[in-house]
Design brief:
The complex is a heterodimer of chains A (110) and B (116).
Chain A (H helix, E strand, L loop, with lengths): L3 E3 L2 E5 L4 E6 L6 E7 L6 E7 L4 E4 L2 E6 L4 E6 L8 E8 L7 E2 L3 E6 L1
Parallel strand pairs in A: 2-11
Antiparallel strand pairs in A: 1-3, 3-8, 4-5, 4-9, 6-7, 7-8, 9-10, 9-11
Chain B lengths: L4 E3 L2 E4 L5 E6 L6 E7 L6 E7 L2 E4 L8 E4 L6 E5 L8 E8 L10 E2 L3 E5 L1
Parallel strand pairs in B: 2-11
Antiparallel strand pairs in B: 1-3, 3-8, 4-5, 4-9, 5-6, 7-8, 9-10, 9-11
Classes of the chains: A mainly beta (110), B mainly beta (116).
């Protein structure tokens, strides 16, 4: 079951914050976040395990609400380099098979 | 060290032709994944290898798709009798190990296949 990402697209001014959500109708084992720039490989951002943990590095952080089967990615003080498409990949069990959402297109303008 | 590499980067095939896409994973990575990414969509799982063993091929769209990793390193995705609906970016990813919990997958740049 493909996770649902929202919003589908967002435009920010440099320095603004953004939240991207990823929801699943099924119980999740983990959520993976990736960023992909046009024509490039998806780049790993972070993994969150069930248990409601929160993670962060630099200006990107994420949380996983096991009750709601929802993960949120937070970008603070966005920079031009944050532009790209953000994908969440969900894992139902420890099979390593990821099911990706359709992405959130983020554009940061000067 | 070197990341995941894929070749060719671009491939144009006439409908009905066979194609072979190559993936060189990061050295020492046990797990290897193939994904298909349609324009404007997220990657869609095709198949998974653990060393040379193909443990999951549930995502392969039809029996025209075949993947192998004979020596547990380089992998080839072959598509026979290509159709227009096969046009997509084919991504390969590798991961360090299959034990100890979920691990990040490192993606290659992909092969953009266009079937005319």
């Amino acid at each position: 079951q493909q996770p649902v990402q929202s919003p589908q697209a967002v435009i920010l001014r440099e320095g603004e914050d953004a939240v991207i959500n990823c929801s699943s109708s099924k119980a999740l084992y983990s959520v993976h976040w990736y960023r992909q720039k046009h024509g490039e490989a998806p780049v790993f951002l972070m993994i969150l395990l069930k248990g409601g943990e929160q993670k962060g590095h630099d200006k990107i952080s994420a949380s996983f609400n096991e009750k709601k089967q929802q993960s949120s990615l937070y970008l603070t003080a966005s920079q031009l380099s944050c532009s790209g498409t953000y994908f969440c990949g969900t894992e139902m069990d420890s099979s390593y098979k990821l099911i990706f959402g359709s992405g959130t297109r983020l554009l940061v303008r000067p | 060290g070197a990341g995941v590499s894929q070749s060719p980067r671009y491939k144009v095939a006439k409908r009905g032709q066979d194609v072979a896409l190559r993936c060189d994973p990061i050295s020492g990575h046990v797990s290897l994944f193939w994904y298909q990414q349609a324009l404007g969509q997220g990657p869609e799982f095709l198949t998974y290898f653990q060393n040379e063993a193909q443990l999951d091929k549930s995502g392969l769209p039809s029996d025209r798709f075949f993947a192998e990793r004979p020596e547990g390193s380089v992998s080839t995705l072959k598509i026979q009798r290509t159709q227009q609906e096969d046009s997509a970016v084919y991504l390969c990813a590798s991961s360090l190990s299959f034990t100890g919990g979920p691990l990040e997958q490192y993606f290659g740049p992909g092969t953009r296949l266009t079937v005319t």
